[in-house]
Structures are given as C-alpha cells and as structure tokens.
Amino acid sequence: MGERIVMLGAGAVGGYVGGHLALAGHDVTLIDFWAENIEAIRRDGLELSGMTEAERQVAHPKTMHMHEAAGSLSKQAPVDIAIVAMKSYDTEWVTQLVKPYLAPGGYVVSLQNCINEERIAGVVGWGRTLGCIASRISVELYAPGKVRRQAPKGANAHTVFRVGEAHGLPTERARRVADLLSAVDGAKVTTNLWGERWSKLCHNAMRNGVSAATGLAGREIDKHEQIRHFMIRIGGEAVRIGKALGYEIEKIGKLDPATLARAGDGDAAARDAIDAILVEESAGGARGELQRPSMGQDMIKGRRTEIEFINGHIVDKGAQISIAAPCNAKITSLVRRVERRELPVGIDNLRDV
After folding, report:
1. Distance between CA atoms of 284 and 302, rounded to whole angstroms?
2. Sign of the torsion formed by the C-alpha atoms of 70, 76, 82 and 83
3. Cβ distance 6 to 26 under 8 Å?
4. Looking at domain 4-191, which CATH architecture does it have?
C-alpha cells in the first residue's frame, strides 16, 4: 500500500523488525542514536541471523542518525506509521520528535517491552496510538549492524506479534500493522491489548531484573531453586495486582496466571506445578543459555535499565489499589543499587530473598 514507515530505535527489536520489513519491500527508515550502528548499516547492511542458516539475511533499509531526524523528516513525505522500539524512558521525547511529521492519518505504534501507550497518547492523542506486543522474540543487537535471534521462528506454533487498540475493537489499521508484521513472524490482532501487555509485564518482571542483578543468562536463571521461588513470588504479586486492576491476563509463556498467583501466595501444590515448568525450561540447549533478557543486556552494556517501568510499575500500580508487592520492590531496589554501582553484579545479590 506504499506506507511510509519510520522505526524509532534500531536496536534488537527495532532492527530485527525494520530489517525484515525492508527485506519484504516496504518503505522503512531506521532512526537510531547509536552512530556506529547506523554507520554499519549504511556501509554493510543490517545482518539478521537466527537459529538456522536460512535465517541469515542482509537488509538495506534507509537510515537516519537521530540528530538528522528533524531536518531530514521535514524534507520528506509524511510518516504514515511511526513504530517506537526504544526504551520506555525515551518514549515521550521520541514521540514528540516524530509528531510534526505524521501524515493526517498517521499514527504511532508502541513496539516496546513495557506499557507505554498512555505516554504516547499523552503526546499524539489516543486516536493516533496503537499497541503491539512482541512475545518471546528473543533478539539481541550484539554488534553494530548485527541482530541475532535466539528463539525459533514460530508463526505456526507461537504468535509473536499481537497488535491492538486501547478500546479493544479490531480496526483496519490494527489489521494492517499485523499484516505488515506477518513478514517478520506470526502476527494477529488482539482485542485484549491490556491483558496481553500485563501478561508480558509479568514475564519481564520475573526475569529481567533477576538477570540484571545477578548476571545470569537465559535458562541459567531457572536452574537455581531459590531464585526460581523468588521469581514465582514476583510473578504471583504481578498477577494479583493485574487481576485487581481488571485485566484479563493471558497465559505467561507456559504459565497459567491463576496457578502462578496461588504459587506466589504459598500454595505448595501450585508452586510445585510452576516449579516443574521452570525446571523443564532450564533443560534446554546451550544456545538458549546465551540469551540474556534485555535488562541483563543493558546492565552489561552499562545502559540505564527499565526496572522502574517493569517491577517498579507493578509496585506503583499496586500502591494505587493498596496491594503491596514486596518482592517486586526488592528486585527494583537491588537493580537500582547495581546500576549505581553500590553492589556488584552477582548471584549473591539474591542470597537473602
């Protein structure tokens, strides 16, 4: 249909999605503030790889340095679809940046880890805001211009992208974005954006902060009984608060939300059931162990984490409805202390949990 697509953020998810959209022939421009990344893409293309040799491809999308964006966008055709694939703390300013260049019917899609639709709507309005969850995509920008996926492509077994409106009704633009993303992997329109969002938040809450605080990667996290049980309590708190907020929470990976909530409350049978699933997941191959949750990657790179937008968000929402989330508060505090270098990254940070 010839839409002009701008990808705001060319990191792991933005690069992977934007690269595949370019390979599918769409007019997509990647905008990023990491100069070496943009220069590598301009020079050598964007290398995309995965778990099979067939997934290795090189895309050649259009690119802009972030500092070029305002001047360059003002001289080009209006933007039909602006996809935000940046950290949560960058949401408002990057939405402000693209707002003047949106086409009359243009809109902004949040393709982010956390719940940022309200932040985007605060800048462009709800009528120009669309949500999209990327579920279990497991991608990493491991070098400038190089994105690696460490989960199998699963259009048949698992729908990665879930596109939805805040009001829950299926719309033409939601269907269009799902259609575009189907060139990347499985995609669908969801009528339960907030439930899907909270489900992913639960998953991220259980793993991201733990990885950032301990340095553990992938399935390594699940191999430690004490850490597994702490994760279960984190997830149980998150589910209880989400339910109290009225969200219809979807399955959290392989975990049933109701069982996870009971496990977090101390139900021994429920905990054993969740524990068994986590232990089974830890038995995967070595390739999966190389994959760190995004917050663990951020900590290694010395970048600011999204801890306040994940576990901290759960704590804040719980406080609004008088439900405490002590385990989420604990991991939030630990990660902030590690970020400030008051504590070293290491498993000892969770010894007393």
Report:
1. 28
2. negative
3. no
4. 3-Layer(aba) Sandwich (3.40)
